[in-house]
Design goal:
Its cofactor is Mn(2+). The chain is an alpha/beta fold. The protein is about 40% helix and about 25% strand.
Amino acid sequence: MTGTHHRDVLLREVLRAELHAAQELRRELHAQPRLSGKEGPTLKRVLEALPDGQVEYVAGTGAMLRVGGRGPAVGVRGELDALPLVERTGVPWASANGAMHACGHDVHLAAVVALARTVHRVAGILEARRTRRAGLEAVAEDADRVAPLVVVLQPREESFPSGARDIVEAGALERLQVNAMVGAHVQPVLEAGVIACTPGAVNASADEFRVTIRGRDGHAAYPHLARDPVVAMAQVIVAAQQLVSRVTDPMVPTVVTFGTVHAGTAPNAIPGEAVARGTLRTLSRTWREALHARFAEQVREVAGAHGCEAEVRVFPGEPVLVNDAVLAVRTGELLREQGHSVSEELRSCGGDDFAQYGALVPSLMMFVGVDTDAGLHSPDFLPDDSSVAAVAESLLAGYLAASGDRVSVRR
């Protein structure tokens, strides 16, 4: 048995031993969630569960902790924040504070803790063995080492501005020598036991817009004396859908969604203004800016055709999340070797600020199938405790793949 193979087997054995405590931690975190920007108690509890290491506080209510020796490290992300939802799962450990881990962040955090404790324990075991057998050739010693791990406890994944952006802009990854980032997210659209490890773009850019159409107010009975911004807005909403069906390349997934529309205060009056907000999303980096420009142009033209004026503001959010191809393929191979069912094709127009890390270093976001009928962000969403193991094993495979020379070069 080679040193590398022995090391990997030991990592998996120790990880299994950590899972019971991780599942208990998951329930504890689930019962006491904290909203974006208020994650302090969650951060404190997770740090207590982690092994001792070099801690750097980041992004207000986040932290990064380095486990292991010197040199290039692999980063793993755990999201600290919950959603403003009233939970209705009915389990004894349900949240009762008006917030809820309805996107699986409790599972992710527990899995990250299990991996960090595993790497810490195995590094200690191997160091003790190296000390006892001093004098053996250096190649064997190197094969027995584990790569340093940096735990990224990230705040504000569910809100804007994102915690990931703050971490990247602050240079925290460089300071802790993170050369690759790995993440895993529970995903109910996949069957339990299936892990998606897809190369290339897997999540869309996620930008918001606000459209304000100004017309001329008036009496509802005399529309010819007014310029109705409500009718203009209705036409804008319909016309915007043609951007997807007739302007966008049909091979490029694109979404234009109007989420809110507000106008007027009385049923018998034409208001002077209508305001709508929504989201623009695409899996194409190159089409993203062109989509913004074409959307704004179309809104102004349609409003103008109805005698109104339009103001369009686009608020850039998260970029396209692109998985490093080498890292994705290698991780998939490792997962298959361990008997996991791997899917290489899961892409969606959902957004994740994990994409911020991929702009700096090779990164991989995996999606882990869970057994639940409820969707993400539902008050009924509650993956089984076994999902902690599935996410932890996925992260371990990504960590091992990212430890290789082929993906350890900074962009």
